[in-house]
Design the sequence.
């Protein structure tokens, strides 16, 4: 039996198509949704690389520093997950 090697994009495409097929989509819809999903993931990935977020500790919790919130660089946007796993955002004055 011959084995095949798939790159990450192909592997994820196949997994997503299977997921959408299992969710009662037609093959055409499953392929389209898989492509859209992968494009969304790539866009988010590119955004995160550009802003290169860092983790900071504040008030006993871990926050994601999402960068400056305004052009003057006097405020920063932070994100975190609440106890239910929902995203929360906070704008803080830069005190550096």
Sequence:
């Amino acid at each position: 039996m011959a084995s095949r090697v798939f790159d990450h994009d192909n592997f994820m495409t196949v997994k997503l198509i299977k997921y959408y097929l299992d969710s009662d989509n037609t093959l055409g819809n499953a392929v389209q949704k898989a492509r859209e999903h992968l494009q969304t993931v790539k866009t988010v990935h590119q955004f995160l690389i550009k802003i290169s977020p860092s983790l900071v500790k504040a008030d006993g919790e871990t926050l994601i520093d999402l960068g400056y919130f305004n052009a003057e660089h006097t405020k920063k946007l932070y994100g975190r997950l609440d106890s239910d796993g929902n995203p929360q955002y906070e704008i803080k004055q830069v005190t550096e």
In short: The chain has a mean pLDDT of 92. Helices lie at 8-22, 27-51. Residues 43 and 49 are 10 Å apart (CA to CA).
